[in-house]
Write the structure tokens for this entry.
Amino acid sequence: MPATAILLPSAIRPGGPAGGKAEALADLIRAGFRVPPFFVAPEGSGEESLLAAFDEQFAADARVACRSSARGEDSSEHSFAGQYSSFLDVGRSDLVSRVAEVWASGDSERAATYGSERNAEVLAPAAIVQEMVDAAFAGVAFSADPVTGNRDITVVSAVRGWGESLVSGEVDGETVVIESEGTIRDRKGDVSVGLPDDLACDVADLARRAETHFGSPQDIEWATGRDGTLHLLQSRPITTLPPAPVA
């Protein structure tokens, strides 16, 4: 049986083998958002095709992230956040083994438990192989307040360097609350992170633009390079958003 073909963003379409996370990223690229280069390795992609895709898309010494993308993942019903495996700072020599671990995580006990508790189908994930951003700051942002449901503010959280420690919950980082017109309302958490005001506002604007694009409040991951360029790493619906407060 021939190996499953590697998918570039231009070939990714809804309902295909690339999975929900990759579908959203490909859609964002087509809409003009700045997303780091990536390709998708569906389960069963061969070692030769994986390495060939790496060589075609990235420099020989590039570092990449290997992340899951299953059908139904990052949907409006279920995020599957943290249920599948992902790996950062992967080099070419470890690519094949890390991608295999992403595929295998579809059979993990934690993914099965998540699916059982939420009546969600657990499917084998494809693997997104995406160029790492040499991040000065990184983090997450919500285009509406995920606690109160307030749609008139954006919540930006940040750390220095890569944002994995924030995404995984290991650290709280710095959180900046920004009103819809761009006014900073509050800073809390680890304010020693020192997220610049203009960058916080740019991230808030990015989250709001993602919301406009997808038509619902979004939970995004972002990173800014050492040169100050802001990249969108992921966008998915906020699945636990309360109703908007009554005025």
Observations:
- The chain has six helices and ten strands.
- The beta strands are 38-41, 64-69, 87-90, 126-131, 135-142, 153-160, 174-179, 184-189, 218-225, 230-237.
- The mean pLDDT is 88.
